[in-house]
Design brief:
Elements: H1 9-17, H2 23-41, E1 44-47, H3 49-64, E2 75-79, H4 106-113, E3 117-122, H5 161-168, E4 174-178, H6 185-191, E5 194-197, E6 218-222, H7 225-235, E7 265-269, H8 279-294, E8 298-302, H9 310-325, H10 344-355, H11 358-371, H12 376-397, E9 403-407, H13 419-423, H14 425-429, H15 436-441, E10 445-452, E11 458-465, H16 470-484
Parallel strand pairs: 2-3, 2-4, 7-8, 7-9
Antiparallel strand pairs: 1-3, 4-6, 5-6, 5-10, 9-11, 10-11
Helix pairs in contact: 2-3, 5-6, 7-16, 9-11, 9-12
Length: 494
Amino acid sequence: MSDLTKLTLKGALDGLKTKQFSSSELTEAFIGAIEHSNGALNAYVETTFDKARAQAKASDERLAKGEGRALEGAPLGIKDLYCTEGVRTTACSKILGNFVPTYESTVTANLWQGGAVMLGKLNMDEFAMGSSNETSHWGPVVNPWKAAGSDQALTPGGSSGGSAAAVSADLCLAATASDTGGSIRQPAAFTGTVGIKPTYGRASRFGMVAFASSLDQAGPITKTVEDAAIMLNVMCSHDVKDSTSLDIEVPDFTQFIGKSVKGLRIGIPDEYRLDGIPAEIDALWEQGIAWLKDAGAEIVRITLPHTKYALPCYYIVAPAEASSNLARYDGMRFGYRDPEATSLTDTYELSRSEGFGKEVKRRIMIGTYVLSAGFYDAYYVKALKVRRKIADDFTEAFKSCDVILTPATPSSAFALGDEKKAADPVSMYLNDVFTVTTNLAGLPGLSVPAGLDQHGLPLGLQVIGKALDEGTVLNIASVLEQAAGFTQKPSKWW
């Protein structure tokens, strides 16, 4: 069978079960694609082909006995944020450049217990801090998509840029990702893929390299909404090793795909109609509203009055937690140690200044400042109070609607090396303007591809749900997916 790499996860699992092809054949197809393409796209920072071949062989033996599990024989890519036993895990930072974990993250352990095959580790912004995948120690990922008539390299978004690019370019069936302020949904929107951040606590954070512990959440990037549901079924679980993991039953999320949305109420927040938003983003949003209305849903206007404070709040809370989490990488206990250091102070200063990149150091400085004795109450405590207000806004809004529909990003993919964004970090932070609120409130959010802009680049719509109501989010997203009929793929230039 040709073009095995173009299969969806669901299509591949069905083909494996009916013995149209073997996991070894499927895995070899992806290995060939990665060997051919990774030099141009830089999506993988570590490949594990020997491990993949061994896992695929074991899966074929199980499938032959009729013992296939939920993801039996499916080749996946793993974001370099997840600790994988015996496989280098760096969070794409120099300071973790030689770290080989002796343990497995709970999410990846769930995947291997489900029968998945590991192709390698995927590129990302350093410690998940970035919106363009340009802060990676291993260099930026290149978006498989290009604007019509242009050869300019574009960002796949961040921080899960490697995951999104690999799925979009058919270098894996699906990938793990993580979302602290939009790091799953923004890359998904930029690459024409589906990305879901489940409710905070749905998936264990044990074994994920921490950025901001009260905001980080694991999730998948996939080719379809149904594939996202399949991945969530396996990734989510209660975990006693994570004190924030929710001890609650994980439903079969695939049962929500394609259900009628008749009677469901779709909230449209007034505050998300930003000044200066591109007309095509606004038009896509209106089209999404029309699709859901045609499907029988009721459209209601809602208000989220503290939305304008979300980005400032996020960029106080997240750096504060980052500065605390990253304090452990000091060259003594953990991380890179500068070989020229001659004293304890030298070791701390040189190891951290050389081990961390520019963006990470900027956020550590911001976080240290807002946590300092003189400013703790003025900034950090106030930000926590604003965060509570933002969460209360959603609680109030969900009294009159079942889900909320918004754009996923304020633009399509922008150019790598954008000078304006490089000179002004705040303009880069604005990429997360539609996504950070769900992290601050701990809610599930999903980006589904819904159209192309005037340059032929993908745009996404975002569905935000109530806490632990990923099922309705997936239901609405599947209806949008069907209505949009988004089947476009990037022209293969790599």
